[in-house]
Amino acid sequence: MSAVLFKKKLADGRTSLRLRINHKGQRWNESLNLYLSPGDENNQTTWINAKELQLKKEKELHTAGVVKPAASRKSVTDFMTEIAESEGMHSNYAQTLRWFLLYEEGNNGIDVLFRDLTPEMVEDFRDFMFENLKQGTTHTYFGLFKTMIGMARKQKIILTDPAEEVPNVQPSPETTEYLTVAELNKLSKTPYLSNPEVRRAFLFNCLTGPRPVDLMGFTSQNIHLTEDGGWELVYVPRKTRKVNPVPVRLKLDAKAIKLLGTIPEDPNKLLFDLPNLDTMGYHLEKWRQDAGIKKEFSWKISRHTFATHLVMNGEDIYVVARLLGHRGLQSVMRYVKLADEMKSRAAERVPAFDLPDDEHPGEVTKVSTASNLAQVVHA
Known about the structure:
Helices cover 43% and strands 14% of the residues. The protein folds into 3 domains: 57 residues, no CATH class; 84 residues; 166 residues, hpI Integrase, Chain A (Orthogonal Bundle). Helix 7 runs parallel beside helix 11. The radius of gyration is 29 Å and the shape is elongated. By secondary structure, it is α+β, with helices and mostly antiparallel strands.
């Protein structure tokens, strides 16, 4: 049983420090995520740290009996597919899997095994997404990728996590965009013949606010008849169903009911026949351009639009949180802040005029009543 420290030269000029493990007839290499760089004054310290990790690994081999699991020969995409199927093939986990498949396709179509997954490859995958996706989307997908690789380590498919030390990109600056009534009217009046379902689903989303992963799974079972003869949307958000399986119940207005059209009799037939999220985004962009809207946006703006207009129209934030499927108020406060900003801007747009220099402000007198204090201005 041994753990031999060795060096491997990388294409960028750095030297990767690794361990060659020999344990009970099995041999494999492990990256220490430590690197030597030409002329770096910290190289000596890095080498000392590597030696300490080597000694730690040798002790681990002799005392804990760690073995290289045969499961490390498992395909990374096979493992990711299992998770995506359990979370739903319209989930962000499925989108992350799709981008990893595209990454493999661009690298001679290799099927990456866990034993071959290195920090350098993980970093390369992150950069591949960053070059092709928006910053916020890359942050979300790569975060889920790191989560899935961490799950593989917990299941002892791998002994070390090659993604653990690879930093994620920073999330996008927190801005909450929403569509104004005028912009919604432009979209509503603009047909989109290339994919009418995208138009219908997006407008419905603006009126109801579910996440795309929930919207894409709605069937007639999610539409319930109310006691007063109306209709309501009922669903348990996929994102929180494991920890907070409380259903969202939203009474549908006439516009939402009209957008639903004829509800299918088959309880398993989807209400909206939609493509994947990327394709939905493509059609949404084309439709936006057709409508002549300058503001660029993605599908999630429909959810922000729903919540922002509720808050601006005076709806209680606790009710808004429940309708969005949130467990707390933290995520809803951004809509309150946005509504306050909009009101502040509106106040700044009142008609501007000059007052005479000798304008008398009048006399302000406080008048007490049984219920409150009022201010009366005497001219």
